[in-house]
Amino acid sequence: MIEKYAVLYPHTKFHVINTHVRNIDGVAKVTGRAVYTFDVKLPGMLYGKILRSPHPHAKILNIDFSKALELPGVMGVVTGKDTLGVKQGIWRRYKDLCDEQILPVDKVRYIGEPVAAVAAITEEIAEKVLNLIDVDYEVLPAVFEPLDAIKKDAPEIHEGFERNINVTRHIEWGDVEEAFEEADYIREDWFKCGGQAHMCMETRCAVSSYTPDGKLTIYHSNQSPYYMQALMAGVLGIREGDIRVISHYVGGGFGGKFELDGAIFCSAVLSMKLRRPVKIVYTREEDFIATKRRTPMYYYTRTGVKKDGTFCAREAKVFTNGGAYTGMGATALYLTGFFHSFPYRWKAYRYDGYRVYTNTLPSTSMRGFGAPQAMWCSEQQIEWIAADLGLDPIEMRRKNAHHEAYVIPGQATIQSCGIQQCFDEIQKWIKTKGKLPKNRAIGISAAGFMSGGIFNWFDTPYAFSAAMVIINQDGTVELHVGAQDIGQGSNTTLAIICAEALGVKVEDIKVHSGDTDFCPPDLGAWGSRQTLMAGNAVKMAAEDAKRQLLEFAYAQSGMNIVYDLDIKDRWVHAIARPERGNDYTELVKKALRGKDGHRIIGRGYYTPHRKGMISPAYSYMLQGVEVEVDEETGKIRLVDSLTAHDCGQPINHLGLIGQLEGAFSMAAGYGYLEYMPYEDGKLMNPNLVDYKVMRATEMPPTPVAEIDTYEPEGPYGAKEAGEGLTNPTAAAIGNALFHLFGIQIKECPIKPEMVLNTLKEKREKEKNSKK
Amino acid sequence: MINDFNYLKPGTLKEALAMYAEHDDCKVICGGQSLLIIMRQGMIAPEYLLDIKHVDELNYIKFDKKGGLKIGATTTHHAVEKSDVVKANYPALVAMENKLASIQVRNWGTICGNLAHADPAGDPAPVLIALKANIKVGSAKGERTMALDEFFVDYFETALQKGELVLEIQVPVPQPKTGTAYQKFNLLESDMGIVGVAASITLNGNKKCKEAKIVLGNAGPIPKRSKRAEEFLAGKALNDDVFTEAGKIASEECEPVADIHASEEYRKHLISVLTKRILKKAYEEARG
Q1: Which of A389, A593, B240, B285 is 20 to 30 A from A422 (CA-CA)?
Q2: Is the CB of B260 less than 8 angstroms away from the CB of A752?
Q3: pLDDT band of A580, cuts 50, 70, 90
Q4: SS3 for B224?
Q5: B258 in a domain, yes or no?
Q6: Do B262 and A753 touch (CB under 8 A)?
Q7: Chains A, B: CB contacts under 8 A, how many?
Q8: Do A594 and A644 share a domain, yes or no?
């Protein structure tokens, strides 16, 4: 598509975008110079530890820490009584969904919830002293599964939430009943989708330093320094502007690090009480049992189609295990319902989602944000429907897929969509695979995803993204962004966009991010928003700065006004006569003098307007996975794969490939490895021996067929990449099993024992029916 | 978090044994790949750690055609994996090491340390027992040698007495026409086995089974021989049906414990499948 575009506008041939650009943080990271929160050490710093609830549901009657204070080296203890008791949440516009006191005052609702925090001169003492705190609990009856928690006589987890229903969400378009009447075939299924741990390499950690002048500086590993600043101001009762959040390097987020956690809150409360810096680093176990997780869901879905495979109607009901608090779960509840319709045109669609409180670890956003669950159910059911009707599963999908200019009624308008080319690529790939060995099969699954959310439940008065570009006298550029690099490479992506727009080289750009004192507010790294939203802001800021430079160049050149000037690769030139021009650095020097010595400052911002309910743009993809199954043990092995992927114009090829590999491994883990078993509210595998994460040895080749499209809303035509690919893989694995053995597995992750048992059941049934 | 401890660093074996006899609440560390995990989890908090990593006289792999293989206590997995004599004479041992944990663990961890830790899911024990290995242990008072089969007592418990160190693993030269193999079942390739099976088969002149050894890993508190299956095989002409039957016998004989990864029933099933497969593999190797 970009070639077409280039014919219309020849000067838009890129000089930086999608070339081979190395991660601009790469050297600092591989040489160990990058300072993560984990590495921060301040003078006089104390070490904090958190005492956690051993009960899934209990009243806190009394906390006695007098013995703890006697231990040498212990500097202080805080409990809920030392806080303002603010019930906080990220859905700030909806007060009833702000339901979590990070240090609860009177009641705990899951095993692992913070109860008290201590600070001591060493981490060892801080840990030891936890045993000296006596907490009197009145243990309450607890409930762990959403379908139990909605029963009439279930224990009440939060006051005033009838049947423990935390949030409901409804999506509907068209006349569902009428559309089902038109269907020749209707199929309904129940599915169960598991939870998943975010498993960041860097566990939650924070260093808070409160000084007597009333200012609080916090180093914290998170996905949105602005959210942290704003939320902390709310819970501590101080002004946003008096809080500085620094998050220069973050070891992964995956959707689990843009809400307050125990580390940031408890370290700040301790620091304010003790007037010394306090550091809290979660252990891996704490990260498992006391943060949040991907939302486990029970999915009912009913789908009506015509004989020829035309989709008529779909109706879905979802009960999610919300755990103890809302977190980002309300958004996941909406998005799972929306993406359960993806990427198809339904004449009518109805979704009812119920998020149910339970006494388990709260569930929240995680890479894919409700869509992996939606796709696991939808893409398998569609495969089964195709088989039931004797239709080609790819052709049936093709017939019903989104297309450019398609309007999802009341929800979204699709401006770019390359899914047809995705179907082509996967069909070609399957053909080249030829006949597979008898223990292997290919499963496919389609998906799509958003490029940033439009919703503003956070109630920010700021633009969703903002950027500032400052040009120094030597031509170097200071790019200030609120976007957060959490390892996904956004600093590099934004530097590329800035270099392209301004007409300089990537090495001319210094990116300032991860510091609320020096970066504009921005919603941060979640919902695949930064390339599109922060990218647009950066492009606007760079173009603003360039316009100021060119004003000067124009005045100097004395050219006819019908000619346009531009800068490419540090070369200032007339577009019609690119060979004639001047050096960019020289121009900058002159322009500075002409501006009375002021540096050139460009400003940019982005807030989506009139783009529907969900997102300004959507990525599309189709994935094929070749799966081998050991029929005697049920063990699954991924042999090969191809992902056909439409993310508009890729900005950074290396970054894109890295993101897609990462998403694949997480998605495959969700499909067949990563299970979180609970017994009476206790997680049974909170360690990396028993919690199974894909390793290099388990990864199949993950080539990508990039589909060439252009997204009008994105910077240079770009849209989402790296999160959406978490969505299709589980269903693709399930579909491979379906083609291999004819079995339909309705629970993920698919454990080998489940494969074996389902296969056994099926064979016994067949045997009996023959009799 | 690991509790503070006193660190003892002997230079010689004699010193090591003397120190070990002297200090009561003392754990031996060499690679530390098992020990540090349980220390970090707070399961043990010894007052002393005796670090034998630098006792060089225990770092060796020796082989001769008569006495067989001798591996010293501080020899790493990596050294075993890369040893030419081991490759030439005990390929099953190398194959086992190749899939033991990660490269990093194998570079630092030791095969004797793995045995002394006595995790029933450990990889080396089943193969070594199938190879009829002996283990030499010693204290300041003297040395003794026992069949590795008798070394394991219970979960994480061995026949080591107070003050005794593992000194050496001794593996006899296999009889002619012997094949040995090991396979574990796991979800991630480098994990410990949910279950594992090692088998050794020696054939007699008429290609019948002269002797079989079957050792089940993680199917009970200790690496366990399936003696009934071994007896079943003795003297038999070997074929797929026989292997399947032996697998069934082995699975009936073991007592695996269910956990979050696999039910008891599934583990038994895996034992029968793995036993069948590994016997076949050992047989094919023995047949040559």
Answers
A1: A389
A2: no
A3: confident
A4: strand
A5: yes
A6: yes
A7: 42
A8: no
The CATH number that applies at residue B119 is: 3.30.465.10
A763 shares its domain with A674: yes
User: Which of A391-395, A746-750, B1-5 is predicted with the least confidence, judged by mean pLDDT?
Assistant: B1-5
Q: Which pair of structure tokens corresponds to residue A471?
A: 């040009």
A526/chain B closest Cα distance in angstroms: 30
Instruction: Identify the domain containing residue A548 by its residue range.
Output: 2-34+464-606
Cis peptide before B124 (omega within 30 of 0): no
Q: Which amino acid is at A50?
A: I
Q: What residue of A is the nearest CA neighbor of B3?
A: A124
The DSSP annotation for A519-536 comes to: S-----S-TT-IIIIIHH
Q: With an 8 Å Cβ cutoff, are A695 and B188 in contact? A: yes
- pTM value is 0.96
Residue A403 CA to residue A415 CA, distance in Å, equals: 8
Give the pLDDT confidence score for residue A3 in this predicted structure.
52
Predicted confidence band of residue A8 (pLDDT cuts 50, 70, 90): low
Q: Tell which of A588, A606, A624 closes a domain.
A: A606
Mean pLDDT of A652-664: 96
Query: Binning pLDDT at 50, 70 and 90, where does residue A5 land?
Result: low
Tens of pLDDT, residues B123-154: 999 999 999 999 999 999 999 999 999 999 99
Hey, which residues 592-651 in chain A have their CB within 8 Å of chain B? Answer: 632-633, 635
Among A606, A623, A646, residue at a domain's last position: A606
Q: Is residue A752 part of a domain?
A: yes
pLDDT at A1: 45
Confirm or reject contact between A684 and chain B (CB < 8 A): yes
Looking at the fold, whether A716 and A686 belong to one and the same domain comes out as: yes
A698 at the B interface (CB within 8 A)? yes
Average pLDDT over residues B181-209: 95
What ipTM score was computed for the predicted complex, to two decimals? 0.94
**B182 and B256 belong to one structural domain:** yes
**Separation between Cα atoms, residue B91 and residue A250, nearest integer Å:** 45
Cβ–Cβ under 8 Å, residues A174 and A159: no
Per the domain annotation, does A102 fall within a domain? Answer: no
Q: With respect to residue A273, please indicate whether it lies within any of the assigned structural domains.
A: no
Q: Is residue B1 part of a domain?
A: no
How far away is chain A from the Cα of B173, in angstroms, using its nearest Cα? 34
C-alpha to C-alpha distance for A337 and A170, rounded to whole angstroms: 8
The three-point CA angle A550-A553-A558 to 5° equals 125
Count the domains in chain B. 3
CB proximity under 8 Å: A 281-340 to B: 283
The C-alpha atoms of residue A603 and residue A481 are separated, in whole angstroms, by 10
Q: Are residues A766 and A634 in the same domain?
A: yes
